[in-house]
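Support case: adenosine monophosphate complex. Customer-provided input:
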Amino acid sequence: MNILILGSGGREHALAWKMAGSPLADKLYCAPGNAGIAREAECVALDVADHRAVISFCQAKKIELVVVGPEGPLCAGIVDDLEKAGIKAFGPSKWAARLEGSKGFTKDLCKANKIPTAGYERFKHAGEAKDYVRRKGAPIVVKADGLAAGKGVVVAETLVEAEAAIDMKFGGGLGAPAWEIVIEDCLVGEEASFFALCDGETAIALAAAQDHKRVGDGDKGPNTGGMGAYSPAPIMTTEMNQRVMDEIIHPTVRAMKALGAPYKGVLFAGLMITKSGPQLIEYNVRFGDPECQVLMLRLMSDLVPALLAARDGQLKNFDLRWYPDASLTVVMAAKGYPGNYQRGTLIEGLDEAAQVEGVEVFHAGTKADGARILANGGRVLNVSARGRNVREAQTRAYAAVDKIKWPGGFCRHDIGWRAVKRET
Ligand code: AMP
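Agent response - structure generated as follows:
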């Protein structure tokens, strides 16, 4: 079948790399793609926000499955529009994508279905929100409703910080002013990312991962979209995985079906593993980036039938096989990220890096200039590796990083530290 992937990051490169190996994939396209994805798929300059253009392309190229990478098009209803045009699409409907698009919606769904999550209240006015935080005290968490590309959350250590965050969100400190904010109790524990594949009725566990959000070594400095990840997450024991399925994922899938918005696609639960068990921090309605990269390296089964089964409501009798190995990815970013950074700097040594045993280099933000590869974004490369354990995957990934000659870039040097410490 002909398949179209929507997106342009390392997540989409990992999906393209995995699907390119499927005997079911005849011709793979990616819109808009990047220089690395171009090795696996034909990249097309489509505007993903223009649903009509995407539908016309699918009709012209006889696309039988569209796989949507990022949350933006999902929340904009691209799956609904493609399906209406008779084109199979993997991912949730606009209505179901509210699990990521609206924190208030998700918190209310959790409360109504006894899904463990931090206590909270929703506010439309700064005054009431400030009264609430004064009553509750710090630390406390302030979130804007709506998509915020990972920048919508302030974990306030003091009341002064919490009040400033409330003013900033209603005042529109970052982007448009929030129409509603959610204020939550601060959870304490270890974070993990859990992924499940859902077909509207049935959910099957994929795998868990952990990522590093802070830009600097030792988990210091500003938050980013993610500077690295590894899988499996040592904290996610077999028992903990089962608890997450029973207490969080299954009740969510049942609740979404009952609401008339059955959830199909990847459900990505951001978790806090507390002393009393798993708590949901947030849902995302797609694969994580860079978590997808480590998941794809560990997935032994063909991805294409799994995505089709999720789309077709046929996961009930489906099973996926995984390599027992661990995997790890190191994000290489342009110097200055997550602040201002330069585009267009030259990257060399990619072929040498890819020759290190167990290594795949996924491109997150690159463009080709003839035979040269140039940086074209904040997060630019995901140097990824498999190994018998996290330590071996880490050693291999950093051996590959050392082969890459990119004076305009940097990476963290301690991705996976927590897991490696546990292993030793
Ligand atoms: P989110 O965008 O909701 O995933 O939040 C981003 C980050 O903020 C999370 O990965 C956590 O580190 C932190 N965070 C969000 N909500 C809470 C909470 N209720 N308690 C503690 N930390 C939180």
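The two ends are 46 Å apart (CA to CA).

Case will auto-close in a few days if no follow-up is received.
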